């Protein structure tokens, strides 16, 4: 059998989602990883993953911008947002597959917060990382991530109504702390074909739309 994956058909509501839980409600340092194949790594803004609902229920989101940079959005109060982008775009990968990683240090010890962006050509979420750009992105002010009731979604953000394109999701993870405790780890590769839901051992993931 070939490797299984979640199909993103480029239409609304193609994603996997798990409900809000104590474990997935990371409010401090966070480490997000996503192994994904996309048809386009330029020119199409694409929502990749998030725990991000309507105003009042925003935690975090990861997206690919039209210039190939990775953008990380988060909120400390559920409504107002902070946005940071990678200093350089991701390289256009062979066979259109990359693993992306975003980390947020909410208190870098110098009165600010730090976001770092990485990519890997290794499959899965534990490969060898290359940083995007030659430095972290540091902003003044200690921050936090809002404890929203939004579901955690991979392959889209919120309802998946915007920022969609054709592609595949292979695996993902969310860690509490940079390199810390895994609180969500959807890995589609061992899941039976055409499954409507599956477990990562802690969370139950539901396949949305025509995925």
Keywords:
8-stranded antiparallel sheet, single chain, 211 residues, mainly beta, 16 strands, globular
Would you spell out the secondary-structure blueprint of this structure?
Elements: E1 6-9, E2 16-18, E3 30-38, E4 46-52, E5 58-64, E6 70-74, E7 82-85, E8 97-105, E9 112-120, E10 130-131, E11 137-140, E12 152-154, E13 166-176, E14 181-184, E15 197-199, E16 204-207
Antiparallel strand pairs: 1-13, 2-12, 2-16, 3-8, 3-13, 4-5, 4-12, 5-6, 6-7, 8-9, 9-10, 9-11, 13-14, 15-16
Short description:
It contains no helices and 16 strands. The protein has strands spanning 6-9, 16-18, 30-38, 46-52, 58-64, 70-74, 82-85, 97-105, 112-120, 130-131, 137-140, 152-154, 166-176, 181-184, 197-199, 204-207.
Structure overview:
The chain contains no helices and 16 strands. The chain has 211 residues and is mainly β. The radius of gyration is 16 Å and the shape is globular. The model has no long low-confidence stretch (mean pLDDT 92). It has strands at residues 6-9, 16-18, 30-38, 46-52, 58-64, 70-74, 82-85, 97-105, 112-120, 130-131, 137-140, 152-154, 166-176, 181-184, 197-199, 204-207. A hairpin with a 4-residue loop joins strand 15 (197-199) and strand 16. The two termini are 19 Å apart. Strands 1, 3, 8, 9, 10, 11, 13 and 14 form an 8-stranded antiparallel beta sheet that branches. The protein has an 8-stranded antiparallel beta sheet with strand order 7-6-5-4-12-2-16-15, with no helix packed on it.
């Amino acid at each position: 059998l070939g490797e299984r994956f979640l199909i993103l058909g480029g239409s609304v509501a193609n994603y996997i989602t798990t409900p809000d839980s104590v474990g997935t409600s990371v409010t401090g340092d966070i480490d997000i990883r996503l192994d994904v194949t996309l048809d386009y790594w330029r020119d199409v803004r694409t929502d990749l993953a998030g725990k991000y609902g309507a105003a009042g229920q925003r935690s975090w989101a990861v997206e690919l911008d039209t210039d190939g940079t990775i953008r990380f959005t988060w909120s400390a109060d559920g409504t107002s947002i902070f946005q940071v982008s990678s200093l350089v775009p991701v390289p256009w990968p062979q066979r259109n597959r990359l693993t992306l990683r975003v980390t947020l240090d909410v208190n870098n010890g110098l009165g600010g917060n730090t976001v770092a962006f990485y990519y890997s050509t290794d499959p899965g979420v534990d490969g060898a990382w290359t940083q995007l750009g030659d430095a972290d992105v540091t902003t003044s002010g200690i921050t936090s991530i809002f404890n929203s009731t939004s579901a955690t979604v991979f392959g889209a953000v919120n309802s998946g109504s915007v920022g969609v394109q054709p592609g595949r999701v292979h695996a993902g993870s969310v860690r509490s702390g940079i390199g810390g405790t895994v609180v969500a780890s959807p890995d589609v590769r061992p899941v039976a074909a055409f499954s409507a839901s599956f477990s990562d051992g802690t969370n139950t993931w539901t396949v949305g739309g025509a995925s």
